[in-house]
Amino acid sequence: MEIKRLFDILYNQQEKQTLEVCLAKKTGETWKTYSTQEYIDIANSVSRGLLKIGIKKGDKIAIVVDNNCPEWNFLDIGIQQVGAISVPVYSTISAEEYEYIFNDAEVKVCFASNLELISKVSETQKKTPSLEYIYSIEKLQDFPHWEEILDSGNKNENQNEVEQIKNSVKEDDLATLIYTSGTTGKPKGVMLSHKNLVSNVIASRKRIPPLGEKPKALSFLPICHVFERMIIYLYQYSGISIYYAENMDKIGDNLKEISPQVMTVVPRVIEKVYGKIYETGMNSGAVKSKIFAWALNLIEDYDPLRKDKPLSWYLKYKVANKLVFSKWREGLGGKMVTLVSGSAKLSEQLNRMFWAAGIPILEGYGLTETSPVISVNSFNKNGFEIGSVGKPLKNVDVKIAEDGEILVKAPSVFKGYYKNPAKTKEAFTPEGYFKTGDIGVINSKGILKITDRKKQIFKTSGGKYIAPEPIQNKMLEIPFIAQIMVVGEGQKMPCAIIQPNFDYIRNWAEKNNLNLDLDPKKITENKQVIDEIQKGIDDKNKHFGHWEQVKRFVLTPEEWTIDNDLLTPTLKMKRKNIKERYIELYNELYEN
How many structural domains does the chain have? Predict the structure, then answer.
């Protein structure tokens, strides 16, 4: 069948490869699974129930969940089939942001997963005239449950009406309104049509490597983000069973339980996984820690495209693989074919290590406005390069502007910003290319490399331009550093605000028998810690021009998290918020 609307993907699966396990989530000690047919039946019940409460084509319906779950999918398809528009919302945003989004989108119905979120939404309802109905996904006392919609739609009496509306939905119709979390300013509503997302799904399919029979994926990144959401559609289009992780703390357990072949990640997750691997390896006893360090040193410059090392290296690698890297793979379930990384730039060093360990990471690039994938690496040697984001998808036209900005034209590029024609016009060139705001280059093989965010590049008082991202990525190779933000716009030199890796530092202190006060504030004031970080920065500074080198740094006494509003829900730094929160520390950098 021809796939033109997002819900066509599900019916295509029914026609071509019905799955016994299409969706799954952990309930108690067992995995509750849903077949393709059950998925369709529940989605149709949702559609019928929505029509019975008066939902019409074009109405906006918000979905807010704290953890990914099949209910999100049932609601998503049910909403689409009646021509309504879904408004997925992050669970971690503030009450003020809920109020802004719900009013801007004129949300009519909201489904929220738990009591905390229901309470937030209920508070918002008082200031949102359009919001008529709120349903909980968990069963809660005193709140309508989402199954009331299912129950009212259980009879097939109005299925003909659902079918008529489904047939009237066109590929250019608006499917969803996604409010970008953003690192500055108020969120903008990105209008994505069925065609935008479907074209991205179909074009991305060719980049998935062979995964074997009955492949499984584990999903934990927020499904309200366009990256994970498109990937979920892609899994369905590719016949991959989707298992939803219980929560961030249980991912390790869930990986071992289901042994998936594929999983999406963001760089911060890879950094945390490697941090735990490193701590375990370096604290596993005198002999084992030496073997671990030897194995890491062996693969430091590993490149999967090069096979020119001496035979002695491959013999050593065989030993390292058996003694060290096989344990990494076991930790991911033992059958992982690939991890797909997006949202931010991945450290080249980490990428090399994971490839060498037999856990290939395919790094990609995109934005909410491009549905999202613009380019992604593949297992094809001509479409892969460490440090790059691969070749653009076949239906994506990419060119580099004179100032280095990446410009994109494709069927996956969004329809515009909701209620904001001025911002929409500003986002495109006169020739109709979307301005990504990222700086990049395309090499002779047609592979795209991102060098920085256009808006993050700053100029020092001496007139030198500084691109912070490459510097930050290099400094993150220092195990004492968890997060780093290079600053210095309008100042005489680049400096850095650093969040120490408190867990690593505590283990380091214990291993070295240091009498270290483990309070975060005391850690940031400890001379030995400061000296170790300075030593690392001095080493990494060698990779940069004198004007780019980090001259001074300060340490923050707390972690940067989503909850304290220093990271976006996709774990990107909110530069403005970080600077404002630590303005006194920032001022210390430039006092003399």
Answer: 3
